Amino acid sequence: MNVIDTEIEGVKIIEPKVFGDARGYFFEVWSRAKFAEVGIEADFVQDNESFSTYGVLRGFHYQLPPYTQAKLVRVIEGRVLDVVVDIRKGSPTFGKSVSIELSGENKRQLFAPRGMAHGFAVLSATAIFAYKCDNIYAPTHERSIRFNDPKLGIDWQIPPENYLLSKKDLEGVPFEEAEYL
Hints:
Layout: E1 2-5, E2 12-15, E3 19-21, E4 24-26, H1 32-37, E5 46-53, E6 57-63, E7 71-77, E8 79-86, E9 97-103, E10 109-112, E11 116-122, E12 126-133, E13 142-144, H2 167-170
């Protein structure tokens, strides 16, 4: 696998080695030993999958301690713009973001360590999004930062009139009012 460091410490893009032939393809999504060799250590306790249609925008979500989560995310089918924002107080990249297109075709994954707010927008007609978490979901500790906060300046690559948002995402707080980690 090829691992690409990003400008945010700990956030990594993983390009797996895909073995393909006339029958299809195979690749390792997660190998504790191989990921540890490249500095990614996580004890994943939960796998999640979502199906969404074009324009669905989810995020920015995160959880407060003791339920912060590292995530390994990927797209099984379709295309999404995946975005993480550093919300670690004292980090040299606090408030900065990393955006990457993940797709069933490119098979890239993004590893986001604890201390990141996470969101994604569906760019294709539909998308199946899968992610591993190293901590349980704790709704009482979940928070949401406003997806379109001008301070973050995210280009979601879809027209705003096509956004499909949940009540939770519409009620996200501005970045300046968020509870940081």
